[in-house]
Design goal:
182 residues, alpha/beta, Rossmann fold, six-stranded parallel beta sheet, 5 helices, binds flavin mononucleotide, FMN binding, oxidoreductase activity
């Protein structure tokens, strides 16, 4: 398949985010025909229906969602659940008429955190994705322990098992997109 546009949404906003590092690895190792872009969620405010004029950061996020064929969701685990920046981005996107920015698109989830590899948060996120009508890659799951010499001092992903899982997951995302095309 050629020209699959993937928008990555990362639930951690910090500069040295290990979840962002997973996305950066994915960007650098995307299969032929897939382009991955990371959304900047730094200035996206909490969703509030009283906000009459959408801030620039929100407009930009929604435009990127509209252009995306697929999503890559980098899911940190905060207190056993989804980090608010990621959920908030999905909440904004979901409020467009008929959920048109997300419905029927494909997505993959990866995450970096403690020993459970964000699995608890990822399974909450899977539930959210049911309502968003996203079609998720089931396998492989990318559960990354951030505290096991997984990243080097420059915050680059060095764990070969996780590297391989990411490559396999991107391939699965591409295959899934192909199945859902038309
Ligand atoms: C508010 C908060 C809650 C957290 N709760 C969990 C948790 O439930 N499970 C877990 O594995 N890690 C938890 N952590 C640790 C994060 O996994 C860790 O900070 C991780 O590096 C965050 O991802 P990042 O590197 O992309 O910022 C928590 C961190 C914060 C700030």
């Amino acid at each position: 398949m050629s020209g699959l546009k993937v928008l990555a949404l990362c639930g951690s906003l910090r500069a040295k985010s290990t979840n962002k590092a997973l996305v950066e690895y994915a960007i650098a190792h995307a299969p032929k025909g897939m382009q991955i872009e990371l959304a900047d969620l730094t200035d996206v405010p909490f969703y509030n229906s009283d906000i009459a004029t959408k801030p620039v950061a929100v407009e930009q996020l929604l435009a990127q969602c509209a252009q995306a064929d697929a999503f890559l969701l980098a899911c940190p685990e905060y207190n056993y659940s989804i980090a608010p920046a990621l959920k908030n981005a999905l909440d904004w996107a979901s409020r467009e008429p008929n959920n048109a920015l997300m419905a029927g698109k494909v997505a993959a989830i990866m995450g970096s955190g403690g020993g459970m590899g964000t699995s608890r948060a990822q399974y909450h996120l899977r539930q959210v994705c049911v309502f968003l009508d996203l079609h998720l890659v089931n396998k492989p799951e990318v559960f990354c322990n951030a505290f096991a010499n997984t990243f080097d001092a420059d915050n680059t992903l060095t764990d070969e098992r996780i590297q391989s899982l990411i490559v396999q997951q991107l391939d699965a995302l591409q295959q899934l997109a192909l199945r859902f095309k038309n």
